[in-house]
Design a protein that fits this description.
Layout: H1 18-100, H2 102-109, H3 116-133, H4 143-165, H5 173-186, H6 191-206
Length: 207
């Protein structure tokens, strides 16, 4: 009797996954290719970017320098054109202050035989006329300077009126002149002189 040998199912051996290995290799190759492309792009763009930024900075410096130079030239031209007019304004206002100074005003306005009241009226009229002729000069001086000029004008008129109020109706022009000088001697400072000194200092600073 023959012996029958029963074979069991064949054992399965693990198969090598060639497809998975190939995919992984492909992915690595793709990463390597991408990095190489990025590096090549950087090699091309970085030098160009450096050149661009350097050129931009240099151009900016040149344009700013030209702009500042042009601005200085315009200011210089404006100052040269403006200075003669400004100096003339200071000269005219200084002359105005000199003309309304009580000592100068009295000697210039008084006429022989002039009565006190008439003399008072002529003095005030002369100051106001001189002031009106120089109104436009305020455009060329500071508000502070013009304010002192106005104070000098108003205080001089007040001085004349105070002197006249202390005089009798029959007082002469000479009597009024003497009273004006007496009041001036008691003043600590004359507003006209204060304004003149300020104008000189301001003009010196602006030149």
């Amino acid at each position: 009797m023959k012996q029958i040998t029963i074979f069991g199912p064949p054992k399965h051996r693990p198969l090598i996954n060639w497809n998975g290995s190939k995919c992984q290799q492909r992915r690595q190759n793709r990463k390597t290719d991408t990095m190489e492309i990025v590096l090549e792009i950087l090699k091309l763009t970085i030098p160009g970017m450096i050149v661009f930024l350097t050129t931009f900075y240099m151009l900016k410096q040149v344009l700013e320098s030209q702009f500042k130079r042009k601005e200085l030239e315009l200011r210089r031209e404006a100052r040269q054109a403006f200075t003669p007019t400004k100096v003339n304004a200071y000269e005219r206002l200084t002359l105005f202050l000199e003309r309304i100074h009580p000592s100068e005003l009295v000697l210039r306005t008084h006429k022989k035989g002039m009565r006190g009241r008439h003399f008072q009226s002529e003095l005030v009229k002369s100051i106001r006329t001189e002031y009106q002729h120089n109104l436009t000069q305020q455009l060329y001086v500071s508000p502070e300077a013009w304010g002192l000029i106005k104070i000098a004008k108003e205080e001089t008129i007040k001085l004349i009126n105070i002197a006249a109020s202390n005089m009798p109706d029959n007082a002469t022009g000479i009597d009024l002149s003497n009273m004006i000088f007496q009041i001036m001697m008691k003043m600590k400072e004359n507003p006209v002189d204060v304004a003149k000194d300020y104008l000189r200092r301001e003009l010196k600073k602006s030149l």
